[in-house]
Amino acid sequence: MVTILSTPPLSPRLTFLCETKLSLSRSNRSVCCSLSEDPKDQCLSRRSLVYVLVASPCLLLPALSSSAKTKSKSPYDERRLLEQNKRIQRENNAPDEFPNFVREGFEVKVLASDNYIKADSGLIYRDFNVGQGDFPKDGQQVTFHYIGYNESGRRIDSTYIQGSPARIRMGTNALVPGFEMGIRDMKPGGRRRIIIPPELGPPVGPSTFFSSKQFEVFDVELLSIQNCERRTIIGFYSDVTCS
């Protein structure tokens, strides 16, 4: 919220009055100023007047009174932005039941069906298939496919197109925070759509797919979970194997 402050007008009796007196001779031009309604013959040369205006805090001109209304959101504007987002998603061939994002400045409203669940962390997700088995634990390796989208439904990455699934060990900070939160309670065979808010999202910059702080959407298919162990080779070299 922006608060507009304005200085109240001065009392009429304290209004700073100036008038320019022109004599018949140009060399006698002077400026007369007073702090009363009936100014005396208190004439200052131009150089003196400039010094007084800069040095004296009492000669401030009154601020004009002003009033402003905070910008209120119109339902029409929200509908317009929603329809614009839907149109862009159709052009980008976004998948079915893709969430809509109404963005106005830094404020974003996520519009999704009741099938989506919002966690306390701010993460939003929907299960298309729950899967079977146990949840992955720290230290275990998860193998999964994913497709990443931005707010407009444009695909930004896909392991399906790459031709091989991703593999990562849980609890090693190798994933986007919101992504790891989203698959931590998935089971093998499960399929889930994860909506990651900016505060849980990836870093931004030229070295990433993400150029600005926005919501990211991932469709994830968890394929398997493997246990991992560290092994030592020839006494000084070790690695981690998962099976």
From TrEMBL:
It comes from Arabidopsis thaliana x Arabidopsis arenosa. Residues 139-226 form the PPIase FKBP-type domain. GO terms for molecular function: peptidyl-prolyl cis-trans isomerase activity. The keyword Cell inner membrane does not apply. It catalyses: [protein]-peptidylproline (omega=180) = [protein]-peptidylproline (omega=0). Pfam families: FKBP_C. Its EC number is 5.2.1.8. This is peptidylprolyl isomerase. Keywords: Isomerase, Rotamase. The lineage of its organism: Eukaryota, Viridiplantae, Streptophyta, Embryophyta, Tracheophyta.
